[in-house]
Specification:
Layout (H helix, E strand, L loop, with lengths): L2 H15 L3 H5 L4 H7 L1 H11 L3 E5 L5 H9 L2 E6 L2 H8 L8 E5 L12 E7 L10 H10 L1 E12 L3 H4 L3 E3 L5 E6 L5 E5 L5 H8 L3 E9 L4 E8 L1
Parallel strand pairs: 1-2, 1-4, 2-3, 4-5
Antiparallel strand pairs: 5-10, 6-7, 7-8, 9-10
Length: about 220
């Protein structure tokens, strides 16, 4: 499958998944999320506290709620209005969140510059050939010295059980289905620390990588050159 076709199919998948997303992720509200992901939240908090944060691929706003409690302001972006509609309906406690529809590979019309950026569960879904495009778009909206954080999933037995294959550029492509009965091909890569550092090298200093083994997630943070 050609890269544009694969990206378009993933867009259909995530567009169709909006109303299933929180159930799929086992999300039970902000308090439960803070308790479950407390160690990761504590680690990234210094990078977002008191800052103007650009959030990429905010989905249904679960991490947006976490950011809102700590940031000065948050511009939360997603490609899909279905996700944004759900995110807008969640409580934030502070009047510091703005939602904007934006393609992560362009990030047009989001304002800025921002002094922080955040994305969760986004990096793994980028085809390898699109990572550079995303990083250029992201860093064009960040000021020098800004802090940025990416969080994503480590490989687990669950992912090993999903039918998948490697395509010609080394992406892991999984077969996924939704309760609507449709099947989709979705990129789900599991980058190593070395890969992440190499990708961030042209843009970043003070790169810090951590693995949260109990939570089966990794995080990487950096300072924008």
């Amino acid at each position: 499958m050609r890269r544009p076709d694969l990206v378009e199919e993933m867009e259909r998948y995530y567009g169709d998944r909006a109303h299933y997303h929180d159930d799929y992720m086992g999300h039970e509200g902000l308090e439960a999320m803070e308790g479950l992901l407390g160690p990761i939240i504590a680690l990234v908090e210094p990078d977002i506290a008191g800052r103007d944060v650009l959030e990429v691929a905010c989905g249904t706003g679960n991490w947006t709620q976490v950011l809102s409690k700590r940031a000065r302001s948050v511009v939360a972006t997603d490609l899909f209005e279905g996700y944004l509609d759900i995110a807008r309906g969640k409580p934030y406690g502070r009047d510091n969140v703005t939602f904007a529809r934006a393609d992560a590979y362009r990030l047009e019309g989001v304002g800025g510059p921002f002094d922080a950026a955040f994305c969760a569960d986004w990096w793994s879904h980028m085809p390898r050939s699109r990572i550079g495009t995303f990083l250029h778009a992201l860093h064009a909206r960040l000021s020098p010295g800004a802090r940025a954080v990416a969080i994503d999933m480590m490989r687990t037995e669950h992912f090993d059980s999903i039918l998948s294959h490697l395509d010609e550029e080394g992406n892991e492509v999984q077969e996924r289905s939704l309760p609507n009965g449709r099947s989709y091909k979705v990129v789900k890569n599991f980058p190593t620390e070395v890969e992440l550092r190499e990708r961030l090298g042209p843009f970043a200093t003070r790169v810090s990588y951590a693995e949260h083994l109990q939570l089966r997630r990794w995080s990487v943070s950096w300072t924008v050159k």
